[in-house]
Write a structure and sequence with these properties.
Layout: H1 4-14, H2 24-44, H3 49-55, H4 58-69, H5 74-96, H6 130-156
Helix pairs in contact: 1-2, 1-6, 2-3, 2-5, 4-5
Length: 160
């Protein structure tokens, strides 16, 4: 699995537009949720591996999304579900490209116990890029901060 920093970085760079301002937190949560739900159980109870595998599937995440969206008021419920599930699908897209020694992810669970991926990298490969992701996010935020500060200073002068 790509690590949580990689999933967060991918969500960060995809959600930089103004369109995401109101839903960015849901998109981030969705990008992390499959691992946040499945990994702790697997780490604490490794013998429950085949149960935790089912948690990290689109079918289970659809159920989680629908349940989570019930905590939102009626008008925003479908938007919350949509953006949370969009983050989850980003997570699954990144996971789809990793290779496994034994079993991978069961994308079609409960209809199939067949695992398939496009094996481009090993699970530990993205960990090497954590300093790069952090540096890119910091540089982007610094550039946005300086741009906003410059625009504020320009408008304070009375210039357009």
């Amino acid at each position: 699995m790509p690590d949580l920093v990689t999933h967060t970085a991918a969500a960060y760079f995809l959600s930089r537009s103004r369109r995401f301002e109101q839903v960015r937190a849901l998109f981030y949560l969705g990008a992390l949720l499959p691992d946040l739900l499945a990994r702790p159980i697997y780490i604490l109870f490794p013998k429950l591996f085949f149960f935790t595998v089912a948690i990290h599937t689109p079918a289970f995440m659809i159920i989680v999304t629908l349940l989570f969206s019930e905590f939102f008021p009626g008008k925003s419920r479908s938007a919350a579900a949509t953006w949370l599930f969009a983050g989850i699908m980003l997570h699954f897209m990144l996971d789809f490209f990793q290779r496994h020694l034994l079993t991978g992810y069961y994308w079609l669970f409960p209809f199939s116990w067949r695992s398939f991926e496009l094996p481009l990298f090993w699970p530990e490969t993205p960990v090497r890029f954590i300093p790069l992701w952090i540096a890119l996010i910091a540089a982007t935020e610094a550039a946005l901060f300086l741009r906003k500060r410059r625009l504020t200073a320009t408008h304070a002068d009375g210039s357009p």
